[in-house]
Amino acid sequence: MNSRREEIVQAATAIAAERGVRAMSVRAVAARAGIGSSTMRHYFPTQDELFHEVVGRSFHANLANLDIHDTAVPADERLIACVAQFLPADDDQVRMLEGWIALYADAFGPSHTDQGARLLDSLTAHARDRVTAWLDTLDAEGALQPANPALHVTVMLALVDGLCLALLASKHITAADAHATLAAVITKTVITAPT
């Protein structure tokens, strides 16, 4: 990556970490990077592009590709492990989903903000990109059931959202139940049966 562009992203990331994404104004980021606003606009023509890059860095740093490229591991196991990263690992982590639901409230709730909507939109786009990349790997191996690849992405992300909501809303579903449901859906609807 271009070093000046990287400096801008690092400056924006530092501001977001210190004061939140709302503080990532063009003026603040340019000052932190030690450049003029016009130079910053050269590398990031819109503030949304910079915002998306910073959000993406944080998002992707918290996900791994695990064994997605290891053809010695069955395709369903690889995909399940990757997508399961979107779910709490155990019941002790379910409370962490409150931040996820707060993000939706900030984007769509009664006190919604444009910043909340931008953040949710960016995170959703990055999630779609990552799941698409995992599916592209498996599709190249012939491991996906026939369907529009975007449909598989939508199904998996909708399932994850629904399971996260169920974990927060009900005492009748555990993290283990959510993981089992995810595994069943991926195995039955996304991955082809081994021949």
Compute the separation of the termini in Å: 43 Å
What share of the residues lie within helices?
A: 55-70%
- The low-pLDDT segments are none
What's the total helix number? Answer: 9
Order of helices and strands: HHHHHHHHH
Gist of the model:
With 195 residues, this protein is mainly α. The chain has helices at residues 3-19, 26-33, 37-43, 47-61, 75-83, 97-108, 114-140, 149-169, 175-190.
In words, what does this structure look like?
The chain has 195 residues and is mainly α. It is built from nine helices and no strands. The chain has helices spanning 3-19, 26-33, 37-43, 47-61, 75-83, 97-108, 114-140, 149-169, 175-190. α5 (75-83) crosses α9 (175-190). The longest helix is centred in the middle third of the chain and has 27 residues, at 114-140. The chain is globular. The protein starts with a helix and ends in a 5-residue tail after the last helix. The model has no long low-confidence stretch (mean pLDDT 92).
